[in-house]
Specification:
Number of strands: 0
Radius of gyration: 13 Å
Structural class: mainly alpha
Largest sheet: none
Oligomer: single chain
Order of helices and strands: HHHHH
C-alpha cells in the first residue's frame, strides 16, 4: 500500500461523485494488487479514514460506476473478514461493509 496523508475535510468536500468514485476504484485496486502474492490485503487505519470520508460525501442514488465499485468493495470486505486479522481490523472492515450494504443498499457481485 502506498503512503497516504489523512483525508482533509476541504479536499473531501470539494470532490464530486465522479472523482469520489474514481478514488474509491483506486483504493480498491491498491488493496487488491497484492492478491496473487503471499501478502494479505489489509485496510490500514489511514485507508479506513479515507474510505469512510469518501463514503460520507458520496451522493445517493448511486451512479452505475459507483454502484459497481461499492459491490466490489463488499466482496473485498468478505475476503478480508475471512483472513486472520486483529479485532480492530475486522471492526474497520465491518464498518465499511455496513455503510455500503445498509446505507447504499449494495450487494456482492
Amino acid at each position: 500500500m502506498r503512503k497516504q496523508s489523512p483525508p482533509s475535510s476541504s479536499v473531501i468536500t470539494s470532490l464530486d461523485n465522479v472523482a469520489i468514485t474514481k478514488l474509491l476504484s483506486y483504493f480498491l485496486e491498491w488493496l487488491t494488487e497484492g492478491e496473487d502474492s503471499t501478502q494479505k490485503p489489509t485496510i490500514s487505519q489511514n485507508t479506513h479514514q479515507w474510505l469512510y470520508s469518501l463514503l460520507l460525501v458520496l451522493d445517493s442514488p448511486l451512479l452505475d460506476d459507483s454502484a459497481s465499485v461499492l459491490s466490489k468493495f463488499l466482496s473485498l470486505c468478505c475476503t478480508l473478514r475471512s483472513l486472520e486479522q486483529t479485532d480492530a481490523d475486522i471492526a474497520s472492515v465491518n464498518i465499511i461493509y455496513t455503510i455500503i450494504s445498509k446505507f447504499f443498499g449494495q450487494t456482492e457481485q
